[in-house]
Amino acid sequence: MSETSTSAPEENVFSVVTLLKYMGNDDKALAIVSKIVRDACAPGLAPFDQARAAIEEQRLVDAGKIFHSLRGSVGTLGAKRLVASSLKLEQALAERQTQHIPALFADLQAEYQLVLRHAEDWLLRNVPRDGPTTPA
Question: Please, what is the Cα angle at 88 between 82 and 90, to 5 degrees?
């Protein structure tokens, strides 16, 4: 795992505390944030499958766009470690540093899987009171 992954605190994996606070920190905010979390995590590992195919086909710009989009949607969930990892991979793709891409790809995928696990745990603990939600 990368230095960012091993040295950053757990709260940098996933935290919607600030998002909840900005949205009012009430039941309505919880319902909205729960939907945001589910929607952000809904693609699962599909972006990595798409990016892997793009990399294998030497479509590095396309792979970079996939990760940029992923970073944008999941970054709103307080996933600071994922954002840092994604930026490194996006830069390597843009600069065609092919020797670094496999390790950076693996680091980012590991960070994303952590985010997915933390998000699922959070959803299970924070079902809005007005009805159940389905974890991502």
Answer: 95
CB 35 within 8 A of CB 19: no
Tokens of 34: 């729960």
**DSSP labels for 71-127?**
HHHHHTTT-HHHHHHHHHHHHHHHTT-TTTHHHHHHHHHHHHHHHHHHHHHHHHH--
- pLDDT tens for 63-100 read 999 999 999 989 889 999 999 999 999 999 999 999 99
Contact 71, 90 (CB under 8 A): yes
* CA distance linking residue 23 with residue 6, whole number of Å: 31
